Amino acid sequence: MNALTHMSDIMIPMIIFWIVGYGMVSGVKVYETFLRGAKEGLRIVVEILPTLVGLMMAVGILRTSGFFDLLGKMIGPATEAIGLPAQLIPLLIVKMFSSSAATGLVLDIFKTCGPDSYAGMLTSILMSCTETIFYTMSVYFLAAKVTKTRYTLPGALLATLAGTVASIFLAGKM
Amino acid sequence: MLNYIWAGMILLGVIYGVCTGQMSALTNGALDSAGEAVSLCITMAGVMALWMGLMEIAQESGMITKMTKGIRPFLRFMFPKLPEDHPAGEYIATNLIANVLGLGWACTPAGLKAMEQLAELERERNTCANFQKIEMQEKIRSDKSRQKWDEIGKDKRNLEIEKGKTYSEKTEEYSKNREKQNNDREDKQNLRNIHTASNEMCTFLILNISSLQLIPVNMIAYRSRYGSANPAVIIAPALLATLFSTVVAILYCKWKDR
């Protein structure tokens, strides 16, 4: 998949060039504005640090206890037949509820398998194309005071399934 | 929600660890992970600062506003029944663009506003539909009572003038009362409809959840932290996968909304 790799490589330089160039043309003080945004970015990272400590610790405990190995032995053979390594099953489930909890599991997969392994690649793609269905739905519908969500959940699950299938297909090509 | 997941993971891990006799490994696992979270944040800080800095420029230069306007035709296609220039449209556009650019902090407030506006729109629609129905019923009733009122009015007219109220004022008051009663009744009927998601809400949320994303910034940061040879290699496949899930979502919504 040389084309995909090539496209990935040029994306970030292109976007940086485009944004800075557009800013210059529009007469924005680009450097000062950049610094202001960067400061905000750092603040966000500091804010998520406690979350990460808490969640990575929980995943660390769960992994060293050998629970993931047990899970892998139990459902691994079935899911691996369709190209889904066993470590990704808890990830897929947790991701529907909480993005930060899923991050803990993602990092664990990167640490044990490596980000460039098949499982690592699949995880990276999968996490980029799925959302926290139940979290998003509960927060958004709460804002609209809606309790009957009609076809939202089936639609969201279908989209997630489509993303999962596409991820497995693409990770296999990498 | 997170309370249960977090507690569940820890309790399950400790219990299973005790069963398999992994207590010392468990201690190390917990301590190492906590330290690792800190070093991860240091790596992430660079990527996040870079990205947020660029986004600040994009916002300041009006690029994001321009993009929000640019997706209007798409919104018209996805939400054909949404009135033009309804405030919900702008919030939806902002939310979707923020989603595409990976601006988590900008997504949610705009998304919540969009949902509130859509709820408001739905209430207006229900009121309109019910109003026509009630108007028909009330017309017959009020015609009868107005005749009656006319008769009483003839008798009392002199008295009313003494009190400083003309007959026509009294009639106005009467119809205001009527209106209030109608509104109360409408509200009761609406309560049933208000808590049901409209087609626009379903479409908006499914689109949001299918999460079209241009650059998965966080994933790239995590990958680089764990020694990936090419952290950004996932951009194109991730974009393809997310495009596919979004197209499926659009087709599903269109089929449901037909």
What's this, in brief?
The complex is a heterodimer of chains A (174) and B (258). Chain A has 174 residues and is mostly helical.
| Proportion of residues in β-strands of chain A | under 5%
Biggest sheet architecture of chain B: none
Determine the N-to-C terminus distance of chain A: 6 Å
- H/E series of chain A, N to C? HHHHHHHH
> What does the average pLDDT of chain B come to?
80
Globally, the shape of chain B reads elongated
Secondary structure: helix percent of chain A: over 70%
Give the proportion of residues in helices of chain B: over 70%
> What is the makeup of the main sheet of chain A?
none
Shape summary of chain A: globular
Extended strand count of chain A: 0
Low-confidence stretches of chain B: none
Report how far apart the termini of chain B are: 35 Å
Counting H and I runs of at least 4 residues, what is the number of helices of chain A? 8
Proportion of strand residues of chain B: under 5%
Looking at this protein, list some descriptive labels.
heterodimer, A: 174 residues, mainly alpha, globular, B: 258 residues, elongated
Structure explained in plain terms:
The complex is a heterodimer of chains A (174) and B (258). Chain A has helices at 2-25, 30-64, 67-80, 88-95, 99-113, 118-128, 133-143, 152-173. Chain A is mainly alpha-helical. The radius of gyration of chain A is 20 Å and the shape is globular. The mean pLDDT of chain A is 86. Chain B is an all-alpha fold. The longest helix of chain B is centred in the middle third of the chain and has 59 residues, at 104-162. The two termini of chain B are 35 Å apart. The chains are: A mainly alpha (174), B mainly alpha (258). Chains A and B meet through helix 1, helix 2, helix 5, helix 6 and helix 7 of A and helix 1, helix 2, helix 6, helix 8 and helix 9 of B.
